[in-house]
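Long-time lurker. I teach an intro course on protein structure, and each term I like to show students one example going from raw sequence to a predicted 3D structure in token notation. This year I'd like something fresh instead of my usual example. Would anyone be willing to generate the tokens for the chain below so I can use it in lecture? Attribution to the forum is fine with me.
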Amino acid sequence: MAAENPILQKLRYTRELPTLPTVLMPLLRYLDKPLDSQDLHEIVRLISQDKALSARCLQIVNSPLYACTREVESVQAAVVALGVERIHEIAVSCSILKLVPATKAEIGPSVFWAHSLACALVSRELATKIGYPDPAKAYSAGLLHDLGIAALLWVAPKEFQRAVQVARTDSIPLHEAETKTLGFSHVDAGKIIAESWHLPQELTDAIAYHHNPEKAPRNRALASIVFFSDLLCRLGGIGHGRTENVQAKLTDEPALAVLGQQFSAVHPFDWARFTFEMEAVVEEVHGVVANVYGVTQ
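-- Reply from a regular --
Happy to contribute to a lecture. Here you go:
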């Protein structure tokens, strides 16, 4: 049996990763419950006990992304205005704001969060369009799909930066450049972190297989949704710090066959229209990131 890559081995035992906000795991567990069994007051309590998280949530709630007609001043008012599901999404999104170290690397906190948030929103919308039964789960999967990138930025920043440079120089996707330079990609790193954090199996599979969902042993549909969302965001200029010039014909992707086996709405699916609609979402994400981080993407 071949020895495990030393960087992946380091990831299994590292203490260098940031501590997760205590509210994140309870919120993710709530997403596994039917909406009619969720306790609104418990959700408000969970979010409100983290003052920094509450403040960020209200900042996002009052952004153009959610278009509230009047300013929302409390978490409870936010739940009333937007509903439990949306507040879940916003709180989980804000929980990963500091997941990436604040460095001068090409993929810094604002770039990482912009791509994660955009992919989450596109995943939810795609899930809704095709009839996937749990759009909220698709949102979480899109949000957390690049967990491995965050992990590599903490434990192997120099090695990871080399992969970023290869991706730019060779005009190839980042995960291909990682495999070329490191011998593995961020999906491998992400799987290790997802398992160590005891994330739900569906999310772990989406993280581990979002670049080749047809190979997933289970939860292929969710991984396929994230695959398309990630690809559309990267091609749309909200990826890993650059616009990718990858030629992609969405109808030829194996992930489409995976979705087509379960959801009749996929055949036919108007990808041109969907891509056009998501451009507006991407623009709104740029605005939210500028507001939160004080930078433009």
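Some talking points for your students: Residues 250 and 271 are 8 Å apart (CA to CA). The chain has a mean pLDDT of 87.
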